Amino acid sequence: MSKKLIVSFVIGVVILAMMSACTPQVVEKEVVKTVVVEQTKVVEFQPVMAKNAWGKELPAGALPVDKQVLTLPCQEGKYMDVAASFYDASKSCGGVMLWERLVMLDENSNVVPGVADKWEQSADGTSWTFHLRDGVKWSDGSPLVAKDFEFALKRQLDPKTGSGFTWFYSDIKNAGDVSEGKVPTDQLGVKATDEKTLVIETVGTIPYLPQLMAFPSSGPVPQKMVEEFGDKWSIDPKTCLTNGPWKLAEYSTGKQIVLDPNPNYVGVHIPLIEKLIFKPGTGTADFSAYQAGEIDGMFADQDTTPITPTDYKMIIADPRLRRELYAYPYFATRYFFINPTVKPWDDLKVRQAVAHAIDRQALLDVIYDGLGSPAYGMLPVGFPAYKPMDEFQKFDVKLAKQLLSEAGYPDGKGFPEITLWYKNDEEAKILTCTMVQSMLKENLGINVKLQPVETKVFNATFAKGDIDFGLQNWEFDFIDPSNFLNVWNPELGRHKDWNNAKFNELTSQAASGKDPIKRIQMYEDANKILSEDIGGIFLYNWGHAQMWKPKVMGISKDTLGFMRVPYYYLGFHSLYIGE
Amino acid sequence: MGRYIFSRIIGLLVTLLGLSLAVFLLMHSIPGGPFNLEGGDKGIAMPEAIRKEILKNAGLDKPLPIQYVNYVWRAMHLDFGVSFIRPTETVTELIGRTWMVSAQLGVVTLLFAVIIGMSLGVWAALHQNSWIDYSATTLAVAGSVFPNFVIGIVLVMVFGVLLKWLPTNGWDGPRYWIMPVVAYSLLPISQIARFTRSSVLEVMGEDYVRTARAKGLPEKLVILKHILRNALIPVVTILGPLFADVITGSFFIESIFRIPGLGLFFTSSILARDYPMIMGTTLLLAGLLSVINLITDLIYVAIDPRIRLTG
Amino acid sequence: MTDLYSGNNNKNSIGLWQDAMHRFKQNRLAVIGLFASVLLILVTIFSPLISPYPYDKQNYSQTAKSPSWQHPMGTDLLGRDMLSRVMYGGRVSISIGILVQLAAIIIGLPLGALAGYYGGRVDYVVTRLVEGMMAFPSLILAILIMVTMGPGYLNILFAMVIVAWPSITRLVRAQFLGLREKEFVEAARAIGASDSWIIFRHIIPNSIGPVIIAVSLGIPATIFREAGLSFIGIGIVPPTPSWGQMIGQYYLAIQSFWFLPIFPSLTLGFAILAFTFVGDGLQDALSPRQRR
Questions:
Q1: What are the start-end ranges of the H helices in chain C?
Q2: What angle do the packed helices C204-231 and C259-286 form, to 10 degrees?
Q3: Interface predicted TM-score (ipTM)
Q4: How many C-beta atoms surround the C-beta of residue C41 within 10 A?
Q5: CA B226 → CA A33, B127, B205, distances in Å?
Q6: Taking the model in full, what pTM does it have?
Q7: What average pLDDT is seen over chain B?
Q8: Helix-helix angle C153-179:C138-149, to 10 degrees
Q9: B253: closest CA among B104, B91, B117?
Q10: Which residues of chain B are within 8 Å of residue C268 when distances are taken between CB atoms?
Q11: Which residues of A touch B165 (CB under 8 A)?
């Protein structure tokens, strides 16, 4: 044979050898359990699929177990303890995943079993009972009992803990009084009647209590660790006991937070991802880190790293990035609140004119590339008690001009300059206000002075009641109209200037109403009043977006066909790394 | 000399005290507090009992003058309190951690800038008005044109995102240092290079240089023994303030490259109203600046005995 | 060094200023810088008249468009013309640079003069004040002030002035300290000239050189600082544009919308360069060192 042939043959062999070395191997792991199970199966000539640390089989196409690692961005907080101070904790650094709650929510926001496998409401509707499943443990092997949940809730409502999240549990009996220090914590309507049973008494009939218990702040807390180590218990892997599929492996503040499999996990939500590495940052440089491949995903689920409108435009313009984008509608409303007790807002016609002068679709198109829906009322599209009703606030320039004339300011003449306050922490808010300023000038001839301020300054000024015209949002905490509408009742929520007696009556009654159908009707009516009287000028329900590298698979899809990773609940449990 | 140093240190402490008062007052006049007592984003105010508890734990329930006095008293015992935002770490620990990073960035940048800057300056001066001089000077000037954050952005885009040669953020090892140091050092390089150049040129025109040459000393020795030695002394004097600038002004670089340093932390402390951190960081930086100034002044005297120390 | 008076009598010796101007004109870079600076200043002053569009005119059908004939620098996310915004932003940035230095002189010159000339207690107080301010890292001080006062044009002017006045004061003081001992001052006193006469007719004209240099180099420094503060979002806030703010808003978009941060960056660099050349040129012209 000629030299050439030999050489090319050798090269071919080398290439083939390299190729075979590159294809993924199926790893054969030895797990004692496997043998026991396999004996009952028909023996087929099949490669044994890898099993992960919890004994679950990896799906076809998944990379080997040691490659099931996700690296993600996060915002570091004070500590991991989400049950002490939800907003201050490192919730986005894995804090919401370490503790499995009594119940959890699936991708369609339905309540599914968690630590509890059964739960029911009492016949008179004043309490809920949760039954824990057998054999649940803490990550150190010690048993997890109902008292751990009782301790967690009492601790959270105890004034000494200093939690800013107590309002969330105001539906539990005596929660209000406990958090105000009026009664001792053992008066709280949460009791572990035995090791596996937890009874929660409510103020009125609260159909959505399980949803409250599914929230990440409702997890169990290991009493002895807290009592012995104080706040440090949740940032030291040695003392941070968890009951979820993962445990805390490393907490290097400022550098990385690592979650490893919890071998003592007893439950039905077994994940496929073994290890999670969270890299704390400031949020702004995340997108370049994502593009450089240093992190595997960007998720904008409830105030973790949002994707800015500029990023978003860039993503949809790039076909490759667009494929990695997962956009979905979100239960949140952005709106302007007004003080109808001062001029010029005291005239309903003025409020109406401004509401009709804003092109909400344009806002959505420019800022979110159309992802979302225009809002004419407080309840977001698809929420219970939501009804489409655009007649009170829809975009109609002619009508707006006419109303403004009728109010005494034809073409905006004589209209005082109004100041619009907003937080300058997000590009979307800045763009919204800048666009509205321009719309009001063009459509009505009125001058709006923009007052962008730092978040804390805004909150402080708002709390004093000094803002007459400002931008706010409300994002859902649980699926019930009260979550959104109570905000406008001066006794129950944060907006105190617009005070409508009928609205207040409806929302207060509905809060403890027993008849679910009547309740929904009451909330529908209340929503209508709010919209009609223009307590707020509602702008839009915006969508959220996440980005995930192609290798991240198993992203859950909800009944409407939207794919996303619901971070607070079970989103990460179905993810795995594939080809 | 000893008396001079002593009086300077006293002055330093007085300045720090005054500064601490100014910052304390400024801090407490910013609306909003560290704890979102009025309810943060959701706007639902915390119950009175909880608010009282939180303020008590943080020592913020006492009247301002008492708070200030408490702070100064503890500070004199080197206890700077616990961070409000990271209650698991004391201010000293936190500052120590982040300060290490900023100091590293500063020192590496300055070393880099000194080496490159001085070389450029000397080279340009020795070949005055040749193309070497012009290109070196232009290069030096170019470094001062764009703010360091602009250069940093471009570097991140090109080398981090597009080419993926270097990591885009973090500070975990020498690889992470390359882009931030390059971006941050361009301005100091420019300043050092220009100053070195003019210093060398000035020395070159001096009589003793001509004398040395007239004596027949080889050019290399002239350069080494006479020109450089005398020209570099004034350059050393600008290094002090430059060092101070570099150490304290790293905020933009830290922000773009997400380097967990003091500058970044300081700004986030202000935004979070982390009073102990704000006070601690300010005192540290101001103290550092003053110490560097003192050392620089002492070096001036040591080098040039003609300068007298005024009180 | 010759002083002002010989210029009028003796045709063969050149006055300081004429000498300096002559040298300045010979420095090509400085002259270019001067032209560029003046051009920038004029463009930004007249920007509302000469910009192709109003800087705040939004156009939702033209968002984020690449540079074209209608929009040489492209459009931003709300469809506003970037060229107009960069021009208007220049107005903001350059005016801050110049105004701040002017204010620094207005404060620093009298203070430094009093301290340097009269010495004693006045000097003591002023020096302590200046030292105290300079002990504070300027960037940190600026950030602290801006967060307290909130963003905005007037606030950032204030913050920048606070940062700039100490060094001018110190410089003026040092000049006065040195010049007060000079022979011509003694001579003037011997004749019976009053203090203010001496200050205004003798010392100020002779000390103005370094001050001019400091101010002219201070302009690009101030522009840089404002750009930095606006970059991180606590300086000039939208919708008013400023170069630093536009860079900060759009730098992450550099991959897809490169023109958004690049044009403000180039303009910023150009302005800083131009003013720096002028300052360098003045420095070379007023304190000649490299005589060959």
A1: 6-9, 16-26, 28-45, 47-50, 82-118, 120-134, 138-149, 153-179, 183-191, 195-198, 204-231, 243-250, 259-286
A2: 170
A3: 0.81
A4: 19
A5: 82, 17, 12
A6: 0.83
A7: 82
A8: 140
A9: B104
A10: 146-147, 150
A11: none
